[in-house]
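Teaching assistant's notes for section 4

Start the section by putting this record on the projector. Ask students to predict, before seeing the second block, whether ATP-binding protein will look compact or extended. Collect guesses on the board.
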Amino acid sequence: MGASIDIGRDETGQPVCIDMEELLATRLLVQGNSGSGKSHLLRRLLEESAGLVQQVIIDPEGDFVTLADAYSHVVIDAGDYNEREIARIGARIREHRASVILNLEQLELEAQMTCAAAFLNALFDAPREHWYPALVVVDEAQMFAPSVAGDVPDPVRRASLSAMTNLMCRGRKRGLAGAIATQRLAKLAKNVAAEASNFLMGRTFLDIDMARAADLLGMERRQAERIRDLQRGCFLGLGPAISRRPVAIRIGATQTVSRTGTHTLLPMPEAEPQDMRTMLFAEMEADALPPARPARPRPIAADELIRAIAEPEPTTQPAIFTARQEAEDAADAIDSEAVIVAVLRDMLAEASASTQPDALLYQDFSVRCRMQRLVRAPLDLEGFRQRLALARGGVFDPADPAWAPAIDAAARLPQDMYAPFLLIARAAMEGQPCPDDAALGRAYGTSSPGRIRRLIDYMEKQGVIVVRADFGGRRSVGIPELGLSTGVE
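Reveal the predicted structure now:
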């Protein structure tokens, strides 16, 4: 065998090894119900191979971030960056052969899938000179390559599935070796699972999953019951990198542990019921604030993280924290309103701003604000949506008294209609022709002429505007509350 690692012991107590060179060429699929030991298996695999190959870990639950305490992995907290920055980081990872952990625990499922797709696509699209061998571990792979449509929008599901398919089907020639883990084979897209040649099957109970696992292991259907009887931390292994015949493996111990809580029983507290009640409700009225949480470390800006990936010397990390402290010290002197206006102008200057969802734009807004040395985003999501709607209509300063009547009139409409209405109001205030359908569509986030017509009809039914058209089809729009009308279009 080539560069082998010890993964555990077989039924006779003999070590079972995985040939890493063969694994990189043939990929790995791990399956097991929750609690079967999948994460422990992946952690053992990562620890034993840390000195042999570059590692890239897609971590939806933050289970693997503790690897960075003992090894040279860089943790990327995905919630601190936007899609474009994640893609830039992914490209630099391949260039500098950095081992990283993409921590997705801060994100909702839809954002996790979008982020993972952007990250994997960046790894996949790296230039040929950066096609170094890398082990790409994806935990809970059924989330990123679902077999059926779920609650997420179809474009998000397709993008994530496409990225996972590229990793498992076409990644080998680019040096990317997928090692994916799933709770149920039935939930994982078949074209993703089918590309793995090595299998480690843990305990599972559903007949459909046992049957598929037995088929992959080359076992007869009547032998599938063996999979149900596996103990926690035990797996059946098969594949060119593991064994030519199915072998039972008890996974060995790990040096690091997950941040998740223990599953062992602990002694119950011995306090009397009255004492417990006193502790639970002590000073409830006097102190309404919740217990203080440990302060979360300040997120590292994308450019600083990229420099950290490119610079392996240990002096890099203190420099990052020094720069971060200087940013915090200077944050109080920054005019947050000026930053909001500048950031919104920059965002709306990009063509993609009209098509991206508000949640993704808010992440971009938060990162841009931090890049302007603000300690945290000055607006919450709801406040950002309102300011974004006003900015799309050309109102970047809602406190300007000249816009107060128009904003009051817009309040009678749904928030997503603020922008097209304010464009019409601006034209009326300046005596300009009414904006054409294309301009209103960009503000409303659509290119459909039918939706624009329905938008105009709705605003007119609400009494916010009055549309006048002559026999030549030329249109002007009046705004009763302002006592103004646009020019003829």
